[in-house]
Design brief:
Elements lengths: L1 E5 L11 H9 L8 E6 H8 L2 E3 L6 H8 L2 E2 L12 E4 L2 E4 L11 E3 L5 H16 L4 E10 L6 E9 L4 E3 L15 E3 H13 L8 E5 L27 H6 L3 E2 L4
Length: 250
């Protein structure tokens, strides 16, 4: 597998043109079939104008509550570092609102990220004449009981996000019963690690030579294979024990 990050011009809040950025960033590159193009969620948000000046917000926690689907008050989180929230079926701090590399703005999470991924997919297909490729919109994410952040896919398009091992056998002939590999999040983690978290200015990555990818067009907004019913989630006992409060999107 080969990962190439692309340094771009600064993408400036509160709103900037994503397709001109892509045109500049991909100019002269030989995009290959069966590649995955990963974009940082922040540039999607800025493209959508999902930015609010910090000095216009009196209480950030109220903004978080409005943006979250569900939330826990800050006083329930150790040392009050963040508010723990659920946004788009993902457990993430502060509803994904970011202040880094934001030039005095709060940058909110993208709206309709799967729709945005499809729009970017169509742009690449029409302008770079690819037939089998994928798009991932990625962000940083915290894992319970682990220090540090890794990447996670908040949306994707153009490929199936799971590799199913069920029904196959391991090296000793034992049949696999529940194992499925999360392709979308694994690739997002790889890309985000290479893209960095600071002033690298590399919000786009291209991943090539990937095994096991099934490229196809389907609409994850209608049926997202990555989402699991709460009653089937092995972490359901923990999630159900938390007394979430409904956020502003409910």
């Amino acid at each position: 597998m080969f990962v190439k990050t692309i340094k771009t011009r600064p993408f400036v809040p509160p709103k900037d043109d994503l397709f001109s950025l892509l045109g500049e960033a991909l100019s002269g590159l030989n995009l290959k079939e069966k590649s995955i193009i990963v974009l940082a969620s922040k540039i999607i948000s800025i493209w959508q104008g999902r930015c609010i000046k910090m000095d216009e917000i009196k209480d950030k926690d109220e903004l978080i509550k409005k943006e979250a689907d569900f939330y826990l008050d800050r006083n329930k989180v150790p040392k009050g570092y963040v508010m723990l929230t659920v946004k788009d079926n993902i457990i993430i701090p502060t509803a994904g609102i970011d202040e880094s590399n934001a030039n005095g703005y709060f940058v909110l999470w993208p709206k309709n990220p799967f729709g945005a991924a499809k729009e970017i997919y169509n742009f690449i297909k029409e302008n770079y004449y690819l037939n089998n490729f994928g798009i991932i919109i990625a962000d940083s994410h915290c894992t319970p009981s682990r220090l540090g952040t890794t990447g996670i896919s908040i949306a994707y398009y153009g490929f199936y996000p799971l590799k199913d091992y069920r029904g196959t056998k391991d090296i000793f002939g034992r049949e696999m019963k529940i194992s499925q590999s999360n392709v979308a999040d694994s690739l997002a983690a790889t890309a985000v690690f290479n893209m960095g978290e600071g002033n690298e200015q590399t919000p786009i990555a291209i991943i090539e030579n990937i095994n096991f990818i099934k490229f196809e067009e389907f609409d994850p907004r209608k049926s997202n294979p990555l989402e699991i019913d709460r009653d089937d989630d092995i972490y359901a006992p923990l999630l159900k024990a938390i007394k979430w409060q409904k956020g502003g999107n409910n």
